[in-house]
Amino acid sequence: MTLISTKHNYVYIHVYKVAGQSVKLALRRGDLQSVPERLRDHYARFIELPPFYSLKPYENHSTAAEIRDHLGQETWDSMYTFSFVRNPWDWQVSLYRFIPTNKFNPQRRQVGEMGFDEYIEWRVSEDLHLQSSFIFDDDGNQLVDFVGHFEHLSDDFAKVCSTIGIEGSLPHENASKRSSYQDYYNDHTRELVAEAFAADIEAFGYTFDGDAPAGGIAAGDPASGDEA
Predict the structure, then answer these.
(1) Contact yes or no for 130/138 (Cβ under 8 A)
(2) Domains held by the chain: number
(3) Peptide bond into 88 cis (omega under 30)
(4) Across residues 90-114, what is the average pLDDT?
(5) Which range marks the domain in which residue 98 is found?
(6) Is the N or the C terminus of the chain less surrounded, counting Cβ atoms within 10 Å?
């Protein structure tokens, strides 16, 4: 769910299965600094009302372009906007393991009956979604001010908090226990993801074995697709 804070003037674009629950909880806690420490977790988990937040009419996992168009360019430009992304190979393993556990997911039964190789074949051929589609417009321009990497979540989230002026610490919500994502792949499925998610891999600096670039990606950086 997109999170818009009217108190600290930011828009968080939530790419699913990229630590979104942890990030949103930490942001809400930061907006509740006047609330006693012992009550912040309760408030942060359950309170999503003005004056701090403006959530409706935005759907779960709205894109930056959708939010910008609804707010208007002037309002969008006046706010600090950010998101987080994840290695596409790791992202698919996380989705494969998560979907069958989520009773509200319409793909739960379908994915739960698939082996991982079958899942990747289905994903890239029938239900492909790119992380970059949440963050870039149709011309390849980065719409948000900052893109952090899941692989450097603590450091990149600290940069966000410093910019918006809150004190935030990350809990670990919805974490799954599994082996390394590389262990799920063979040469064929590895290449399927490389081809299908080529735009994400290039835009965010990922490789199958390598770590993500440190420091995040600001709009205007060469990796963002914007002109400096």
Answers:
(1) no
(2) 1
(3) no
(4) 88
(5) 3-224
(6) C
